[in-house]
Amino acid sequence: MAFITLHRERLKYNFERLEYYFKSKDIHWSVVTKILCGNELFLQEILNLKPFQVCDSRISNLETIKMLDPNVETIYIKPTPKRLVESVVKFADISMNTELETIKTLSHEAVRQGKLHKIIIMIELGELREGVMREDFVEFYNSVFELPNIKVVGIGANLSCLYGVLPNTDKLIQLCLYEQLIEAKFNQEIPFVSGGSSVTIPLIFRNMLPSGINHFRVGETLYQGTDVYKDEPSSLLQQDIFTLSAEIIELSEKPMVPEGDFGTNLEGETFTFDQTNVGKTSFRAILDIGILDVDRVNIFPKDGEIGYFGASSDMIILDLKDNPKNYKVGDYLEFSLNYMGTLRAMNSNYIEKRVG
């Protein structure tokens, strides 16, 4: 069975480095756990690090987190579906919101449960994902402040996730100015200006982060050690927090070009082949994972000499060329993964999860 390993010490190293940098700027940060897909083993590793907050986009994952540690503060980080209002109030201490009618429903449910539900209101800064339009923002806040059992604890914005709109000083200053406007107009303290995600972290090191930004939601940089702004590894952090291992279940020397008439494969692809390879052979290794489990463009063999032939639903076929390292059936090949590669592998029930 294929397995994915979370390397505990590498994760701890990145967490402690980020904790140091954020504390030096008086910034609170929340660990985004959605990449872990609710896996209890890996979630416990996060909770062992004692994060200030954890946040997720799946309420079932927050339920698991509360089961593991009832005292950790949780954030639901996408607009609340009305069907989940009861669960969001129960398992999320804070939720991010953009719809007044939904917040009214959260208020009603918070009254019913006898709880104070905290919210961060998201504002649209150009990414065109979730967010209240800027011209509606003041009136929106005015309506929310009137609701019982609802406490506004933040203003936030999302950038980069949909169209790749990068955060910059001007956009983040706008966010800070809106927070100052709301505080002044309504005489209400807004503790968190949540303008930070992994893509915003490099602005800290360039001294380009406005001082008013005091809350980050961080996933990719913690788990991948990446400078998301430049889409490259960060020299300040460790990479390969996760490693995917898959077993060779067949290894044979076979022709490089298939024989017969060609149609389409299960993904609707039609193939052509370099005819200069007719008559040539290569060692083919078949692995016990397929496109049901992973997206091959997001996983990378640690043996850089290995190539890719193709994949079906539950098998990947790799090109070992002349097999200079003498791989054999039963050996495991290791892969590095980017963020989407890790997310896909974590979501597969057919890949075992281990801590190393």
Automatic annotation (TrEMBL):
It comes from the Bacteria. One of its GO terms (molecular function) is alanine racemase activity. Keywords: Isomerase, Pyridoxal phosphate. The keyword Protein transport does not apply. One of its GO terms (cellular component) is cytosol. Its cofactor is pyridoxal 5'-phosphate. It holds the Pfam family Ala_racemase_N. Gene3D superfamilies: Alanine racemase (3.20.20.10). InterPro entries: Ala_racemase, Ala_racemase_N, PLP-binding_barrel. Residues 53-225 form the Alanine racemase N-terminal domain. This is Putative amino acid racemase. It comes from Frigoriflavimonas asaccharolytica.
